[in-house]
Amino acid sequence: MFWRISQEALTNLGNHKYSGIDDSILAKLILRRYWDLCIKLVPLWIAPNLITLTGTFAVIVSFFIVGWYSPYLDGVMPTWVYLFCAASLFFYQTMDNLDGRQARRTGTSSPLGQLFDHGCDSIVCTLQSLTAASIACYGNGFLPVFQLFMTALLPFWMATWEEYHTGTLHLGKINGPDEGIVIICLMFLSTGLFGASIWTTPLRHLIGEQSSVARLLPNVVLESKLNLLVVIALTVPTLITVVVNIRNVSRALRQKGKPVAPAMKHILVWMIMTGCAFAWYYTSTSIYGSQSIWMKNPRTVQLSIGILFGELVSRLILSHMCHIKYSVFQLPLYPLIISTLISITNFSMGVSIIEETTLLYSFSICSFIIYSIFVKETIQQLCSFLKIKCLKIPYVVSKSK
């Protein structure tokens, strides 16, 4: 039922070598020099995965702090919360780039490190999407759901999908892990310094009704709030990147003499997740309105979906490292599909066969249990096969360095 890795797959995993290209302009000019300085401050006895986990923990802490002050993804929070969120996200980015350096300098690079790193990244995507929604005052409507799937989960899935088929994780000249995180940090800092009201202000009032720019824009744009325009602006480059991902995979497969069409089916995983979430949102809010779980518990339901996404991505990464096929219908999809079908049934019959709160609790608990078992079993199998510790460097390695 849960992920079990065959001996043949483990053998393939033992021979796997990570291949990654980061063409980020900001990383080349500034960030890499900063990371190279930071790694000199890290003791040799600290395990790379522990560095990854420390950065992730900082984001988790900021997520819960923001959740305390902004449970419905709106409202004004204390200034220190915005500043802390910016600092924790920048700290996470730093740790996310130090773990690989630490692995190389201690000679402890492994497939587990790659999986651990990207697995944490996939969870952080959801956490940061919800944090950004609160800071930019999206509210508990459709906007944060749209942002989560279109600007956070979609690019992550497509980048991992490209790596699965090409063997290389290629980050462009302007990408999310580098420029994207820095932009979000600046967004958090700006909100702390200048206030959150700017995000709910119509563009007309920000640029001036009589300005030359205002005369060129249609009223629908001028009347739109800044947070909505930002999400739309982020969606456009995301879709362009998706086209590039598909182009790269098509080119790589043709060079290998392989058909392109079968590879496209893996995109269905994201489409199924997105379709189910949007259908669940629509049917639930149509029946219950402001009492819908998507309105009363927006952080819980979206986080639960994000947890399932994290496992789906991790399974895809493992399939790539083990050189095995990745099927479209994976176990983490089923809780979301079942919950969506229940909501659609409620909507169609006009009667709740399962009360919404019960449905949410069941879905969330199921998501966390499935993911927890997957993480536990996978780490145990990989550590046993590779004869390593997940969060510890053997004394002999640190001493030799």
TrEMBL record:
GO terms for biological process: phospholipid biosynthetic process. One of its GO terms (cellular component) is membrane. GO terms for molecular function: phosphotransferase activity, for other substituted phosphate groups. The keyword Iron does not apply. The chain crosses the membrane at residues 42-69, 75-95, 180-199, 226-246, 267-283, 303-321, 333-354, 360-379. It comes from the Eukaryota. Keywords: Membrane, Transferase, Transmembrane, Transmembrane helix. It is found in: Membrane. PROSITE patterns: CDP_ALCOHOL_P_TRANSF (PS00379). It holds the Pfam family CDP-OH_P_transf. Its main location: membrane. InterPro entries: CDP-OH_P_trans, CDP-OH_PTrfase_TM_dom, CDP_ALCOHOL_P_TRANSF_CS, CHOPT. Belongs to the CDP-alcohol phosphatidyltransferase class-I family. This is CDP-alcohol phosphatidyltransferase. The lineage of its organism: Eukaryota, Amoebozoa, Evosea, Eumycetozoa, Dictyostelia.
